[in-house]
Amino acid sequence: MNHVIVIGGGAAGLAACISAAREGAKVTLLEKNDRVGKKILSTGNGKCNLSNDRISPDHYHSDSDRESFLRFCERLETSEDLVFFESIGIIPCKRGDLYYPSSEQAASVLDALRFEAEALGVLVRTEREMTRDTIRKEVSEPFRKDDSVRVILATGGAAAPKTGSDGKGIFLAESLAGSDRKLSTIPFVPALVPIEVQSKPFLKNWAGVRVNGRITVEGTEVSSEGQLQLTDYGVSGIPAFQVSRAISRRLKSEPGAGLGVVLDLCTERELSELADLILNMKGHAPLLSGLLPKKLGEVILKESGISVNLRAGEVSEAQAEKIAEKIKHFVLPVKGTKGFDMAQVSAGGICLEELNENDWSLKKEPRIYVIGELADLDGDCGGYNLHHAWISGIAAGRSAARSER
Ligand SMILES: Cc1cc2nc3c(=O)[nH]c(=O)nc-3n(C[C@H](O)[C@H](O)[C@H](O)COP(=O)(O)OP(=O)(O)OC[C@H]3O[C@@H](n4cnc5c(N)ncnc54)[C@H](O)[C@@H]3O)c2cc1C
Description:
Elements: E1 3-7, H1 11-22, E2 26-30, H2 38-42, E3 51-52, E4 60-61, H3 66-76, H4 80-87, E5 92-95, E6 98-101, H5 106-119, E7 123-125, H6 132-145, E8 149-153, H7 169-177, E9 185-191, E10 195-197, H8 203-206, E11 210-217, E12 223-230, E13 234-236, H9 238-253, E14 260-264, H10 271-279, H11 294-303, H12 317-328, E15 330-337, E16 345-350, E17 368-370, E18 378-379, H13 384-402
Parallel strand pairs: 1-2, 1-8, 2-7, 8-17
Antiparallel strand pairs: 3-6, 4-18, 5-6, 9-16, 10-13, 10-15, 11-12, 11-14, 12-13, 14-15
Helix pairs in contact: 1-5, 1-13, 6-7, 10-12
The structure holds flavin-adenine dinucleotide.
């Protein structure tokens, strides 16, 4: 019987524990916090968007080599996690393409995982932070001495450090694999995070506005549409999250690069159609008040150099074009992204070319596995990251329990 030691009791680690214990392995979970699964509780605004129906490479990102990336994505194209959830008493329900637990409570997902692990006899040891020193005694020594020991690293990335993940799993992997087996890694950057723009007086005026629109990283095809949240530091909301990775990565490789984002605040109309609409507006209310949220309309007018007191019918053709252009093409010079504390996910980690795609084991030391966000694979908003955590955890747990290496 193999002894599987899982380091990190988040989504991936808990799935791995259950999967390994079901295969008959002795399983020990070492978790830094005083309880497991802290991050799971805050997912999906407390409802836990646990997977998605449209798993494909289009929704995942990695800085590892492209072929490895595609091989891993292929492994993710499965609904094994939904079957797994049913087996622990969580009934997934679909909202559009997104899966949630029918309870719509992240706490129910965590409870089901915890109780299942407990029922299977997983030894859960909390307040066990593995550091370069503690890992030697608690993990490396048994690992070196006993061929039946497998280690699954599930310490997460660097996002949301308050929940326990601090990006140090990379060092743990290196220290376990041994100094003669240097691993290729990609530095962590915040992804799925709000975007901070260069300070402008209008930011405080539009703070709090929520508006449907499109955000595009200037000069690229990186773009996303949905509800934008305008803030006093820049732009938040799901579309901003979706494009933030490209900004983080670019600024990491080229600090100080002059980047911009472009907002289209009226996606349903072409520029000329919008200009016509503004030119021919009726009524006596402030000009854009029936088209955009009031605070945003005022910012648009001021930034177009046009009086906020202008009324419908008083607009010239040139002014209408200028206003339409500002609405369709509002450029914001970017300062950066918010940090890891505000990020839902981090990009980076242990390169995929270091891992076997069938079970997420290290090629250089197949008795060690790297799962979840610690691997250099991150997904869009929409359940893709948890899906990756569950699927990698299930595969690694099963293999670690069964394998003879
Ligand atoms: C606010 C928020 C909302 C989110 N919502 C969603 C969503 O709805 N859908 C979705 O798909 N994704 C969502 N995500 C992302 C998703 O939660 C993560 O990608 C996923 O939880 C990663 O799982 P993981 O097991 O790899 O890492 P984590 O969940 O981060 O777990 C890592 C665990 O390892 C422990 N650990 C770390 N270092 C050590 C150490 N040295 N020794 C021992 N233990 C250690 C940590 O304490 C932690 O328990 C959200 C993230 C956040 C922050």
